[in-house]
User: Fold these one by one.
Assistant:
Number 1:
Amino acid sequence: MLKTGRTLGALAGVMLAIAFESAPASAGGTCSELQLQCENGRTYPLCPIAVSDVGEVVTGHLVTAPRRGIHVRLVPMGQGYRYIGRGVWFDGVREDGLLYFGNNQPIACKVYHG
């Protein structure tokens, strides 16, 4: 079991646990009910790879284009949560977050379930 204390907000933890109970990761397709809907008009599904005993997504696959994605992992934070991968990271508190691609300006996103 991964011990992260109170690193995830209660709502975010519940959303992640519910979203990934029945959404196994699969290669090459949309595999998650959890999505980042961003102000750039794009939707980025987050597919779980590993989930802790308490329902926190430890690692996942952020789908950035059809059949393309980036492996991301949870980094414990004092408030909210952060998923990082090669050239990308997502900082969030509950359903609000910012998606960063490299050194570009952040893209505001909402986390949606279903």
Note: The chain has one domain: 10-113.
Number 2:
Amino acid sequence: MGAAVRVIAVVKNRDELGVDPDVTSRFTLLNEKGGVTLKRHYRTGQFAKKALVTVRSLRYYDRMGLLSPAAHSEAGYRLYTDEDLLKLQHILALKFLGFSLNEIQVCLRRGPTQLAEVLAQQRMMMQEKRVQLDGIIRALAETESLLEAGTCDWESVARVIEVIRMEQKTDWVKKYFTDDQLQTMEELGNSAYSSEARQSLSSRGSWTEEDQQKATTDWARVYSEARRLSAGGADPGGEEAQAMARLKHELLSAFTQGDPEISAGLARFWEGFRALPAERQPFDASPFNAGEEGNAFLEQACTIFSERNRA
């Protein structure tokens, strides 16, 4: 067989090849210019175990367009390859450096030249982060000195803990918002939520950048579906509209956790947001607005959903 001929053979007995037992039973042999390459395929769970990530993360990266499986089996299973593992390592490295998922998408598309420019920008951000961390370290050292001297002010210790906790929770947002925008959102939140609601929200686990990316994607999907279904004259009680209403219900429930104070605060937040002049609104809310007809359609679908699922 000539070297220029490419041969693809499917081998179903992995024992014949002496390969690892954690891979799937289908392999592709490629013969190009005299060389033979074995491409191993891993199902999602196997690939997640090999890469030390969660299945949920892999599915999320697929949905975000960062890392899609190389193929699908006849039964519909996602199949990943060793090349996908290298791509995942690249994604995780950028994520470790603090890149947002959108920035990672850009880096993967653009290649090394633009990546070098983004890395230089990221280095500057890391230097700013180091300044913040140095401030926390100084505060900790001062508190340690007070402890050693026996004159510790426990309220000061609590404040240091709070600074560290809040830094972990909110530092990533500084990549997306200016100080003025963050201040505007803080003012909106303080005026919208009661002290009890703010305390309840702050006591939850940290809200990560990935959490925000997922929430943004899910909420945008609700309103894009409302626009699409409304424009197409769909039935608000139909299957698609009710799936949309269910998603909105689940998103709201996850945020409010049934707390009426948080629900009321959320409504006041958006009321205050819309009352601001467009130039003062701290972020683009257009993805979360289906237009007059779409919003009316969404409200109708949600009313039907509530009636059907009333306890």
Note: The chain has three domains: 7-108, 113-176, 209-308.
Number 3:
Amino acid sequence: MIRNFSDTIAEKIFHNQELTRKEIRSSGKLDLQKAYERLRVLHFSTEKDLLCAVSLKYHGLGGNRYSIDANSRRSPWRINFEWDNEELTDVRLVKIEDTH
């Protein structure tokens, strides 16, 4: 279950609230409906569920940080979070920039 967000856009998407024009521009080509669906999946999933859902591309980032794809594998958008017992904290949308 998601306990808190560190990103207002992710929180608004999760609660199905309307984004401002500035927020829409900053999210670029993020598929908002897909991000909503992925956040809902996160909310109702355990770590074991995420490990079994191969399409989410769940993986560790080091320490207690984890990530899943927000759109698809080809999208630069990820949903990052931390596990605190069975709850998700510090949930946020992150755009991965090309480092090459």
Note: The radius of gyration is 13 Å.
Number 4:
Amino acid sequence: MNTELIHSHEEAKEREKNRREYPRIPYIESLWYTICIPDKADALYEGFSLNISQGGVLFTTQHIPPLSSIIVLETDLDTLSKCIEIEYLLFRIQDYLFGKVVRVSHHTEKDCFEVGLSFIKQSEKNREDIQDAIELITAV
């Protein structure tokens, strides 16, 4: 077999393994979220986390949040803080974390949707879309 192909395949596998900035940790817990868009900001949806990292969370739900929408996440922050550092890095208001939907896929076996949520960092809290989401949530 061609050794160039073997090396390039091994390199690709190594890049894939290291492409995540933060390692994922299995984290299976109930969570609730609000989608920060008009006509949905007053609804509370339920989901179940699958894994978490310092960068975000993967969860399942029966409702489809739009890609790029801002979500306010409610979960057990005491337990969550044992898995990731939430005090200084992530933007939160009281017991609510903010995130942006970066991936949605249909999980046919479980008949639900898997949602990839990227946490909003403290350094991003002044973005216009974050301020709009805060205003929308606090108005409800």
Note: The chain has one domain: 23-139.
